[in-house]
Design brief:
Alpha-D-Glucose-1,6-Bisphosphate, Chain A, domain 3; 5-stranded mixed beta sheet; 36% helix; single chain; TATA-Binding Protein; alpha/beta
Length: 493
């Protein structure tokens, strides 16, 4: 949900038009930058606006809030908060501002530097941090950026705490039974410090290596690191497990993250796998919390394929607790029918790995994820983890002694058409009477042979029109008719 949006303007020299920030980022050369501060994929703020720097204020609040929670429980130690970031140039700006806010409020900031989102969750949980912060806009282009908040259990932050962050940024904070016009600064020895914690990232790498049950010796494995967080981690893991590792898009410069690379632009990896005679390829996104695959023939293996392949294997090995695979409403009908054929139950959640994980924890499920490649193995991680997912796919290949193409061939994917329409108002566009009429008409045409799903994006001003059907031509026709109606009604930008 876009609650607020500001434009952050930069001079040609890279100096932001914000009081007090002139010395913050002299290396920036981007003429104009729009940055979104994502908090649990629920809301968004931009990097700067005329009244201040929200990233700094987020740090101020978190440092004070967790310190106050400790003090009210008789613990006067400084709160400890761990921070990771992706390779965007703006991630350094966010990091410096967050650290300034955290330490000014009396918290110690531990820096993992460039690392993956799941590594922050891992370290936050393993090392007993009060919370974790990941600076990333995931699969979005370099000119977007965001902050993901993670609790001390390595899970996405709860809604109540997010509401408090928002209230503080809005200037009407009510917390601990009183109203706060402003929160206090730390003084003298209470001021926090900054700690280099690259060792935490290294422990995460060691953890991933420890999960490898098989040697990958003799396997040619291609990795597309999207010029993002996985660039200095993924290869180290696969090399340690014996693979012949070939890597593309592992030369980040701050501007090329996700650019024609990674899980959102998988064509390059498909070509690379075929040309270099690889056994398999894995594509990660900017913060490496998702993974898509390419089989030895160059065919894309989606998150739905991964859920099917790993779900079937886990059922065979007795690891699929509850005999249930959790997916979202965006997963293909073919997945649900294939799971039915295997005698595996399925559950559908709203779009977002947060909702998948919530269902999994509530119902004690071991496997869940999204079509986009957010796959959660709850026995091993509290969030989607692209590198972990690639290791689990390799585990199935090694255990079954089959190629990825063979493993995926038992899943029939229904033709699917997705059109993203950039709109002025997401809710109003969907509620439009003519749009609703077009949706009903499409549903009547499809009957029991397909389905229609129209939903708003959680991170962009888009209405996503998705149609699935056994007949590809009918699928495309219905999808285009709905999208064209949205445009004809004047909602498109």
């Amino acid at each position: 949900m876009y609650r607020r949006k500001y434009s952050a303007k930069f001079t040609e020299a890279g100096q932001p038009f914000v009081k007090g920030l002139a010395q913050l980022s002299p290396f920036m050369t981007i003429p104009e930058l729009q940055v979104y501060l994502h908090i649990c994929r629920r809301t968004a703020y931009t990097l700067v606006h005329q009244e201040g720097f929200p990233a700094y204020r987020v740090g101020r609040f978190l440092g004070w809030y967790y310190g106050e929670c400790k003090r009210r429980n008789g613990d006067h130690s400084r709160p400890r908060i761990v921070i990771g970031k992706d390779t965007r140039r703006s991630s350094y700006m966010f990091e410096y501002s967050l650290v300034g806010g955290l330490t000014a409020s009396g918290a110690d900031a531990y820096l993992l530097h460039v690392t993956t989102t799941p590594s922050v969750a891992f370290v936050a949980r393993l090392d007993g941090f009060d919370c974790g912060i990941m600076i990333s806009a995931s699969h979005n282009p370099y000119y977007d950026n965001g902050i993901k908040l993670i609790n001390g259990q390595g899970e996405k932050m709860d809604e109540d705490t997010i509401a408090l962050v928002e209230a503080y940024l809005d200037g009407h904070l009510e917390c601990f039974g009183q109203t706060w016009d402003e929160i206090p600064f730390a003084h003298q020895e209470q001021i926090g410090c900054t700690v280099d914690d690259v060792s935490g990232r290294n422990r995460y790498v060691g953890y991933l290596i420890s999960l490898g049950l098989y040697s990958f010796r003799g396997r040619r494995i291609a990795l597309d690191c999207a010029n993002g967080s996985s660039w200095n981690i993924a290869k180290a893991v696969f090399d340690a497990l014996g693979a012949t590792t070939l890597v593309i898009n592992a030369e980040p410069n701050g501007l090329n993250i996700n650019r024609d690379a990674g899980s959102t632009h998988i064509g390059g990896l498909q070509k690379f796998v075929v040309e270099n005679h690889c056994d398999v390829g894995f594509a990660f996104d900017g913060d490496a919390d998702r993974c898509l695959c390419v089989d030895e023939t160059g065919m894309e293996i989606t998150g739905d394929h991964i859920l099917f392949i790993c779900g079937r294997h886990m059922k065979q090995t007795g690891e699929l607790l509850g005999n249930t695979v959790v997916a979202t409403v965006m997963s293909n009908l073919g997945l649900f029918r294939a799971l039915d054929d295997l005698g595996i139950a399925s559950a559908k959640t709203a779009v977002g790995d947060k909702y998948v994980y919530e269902y999994m924890t509530k119902n004690n499920c071991r496997l869940g994820g999204e079509q986009s490649g957010h796959i959660i193995f709850s026995k091993y991680a509290s969030t989607g983890d692209g590198i972990l997912t690639s290791l689990k796919v390799m585990e199935v290949m090694c255990a079954a002694k089959k190629t990825l193409h063979q493993l995926a061939s038992d899943l029939t994917i229904y033709p699917q058409k997705l059109i993203n329409v950039r709109v002025k108002d997401k809710k109003a566009a969907q509620a439009d009477a003519k749009v609703q009429e077009a949706i009903r008409a499409a549903e009547e045409k499809l009957g029991d042979t397909g389905r229609v799903l129209v939903r708003e994006s959680g991170t962009e001003p888009l209405v996503r029109v998705m149609v699935e059907a056994q007949d590809a031509a009918l699928c495309a026709q219905c999808c285009e008719e709905i999208a064209q109606t949205i445009r004809a009604q004047g909602w498109a930008l």
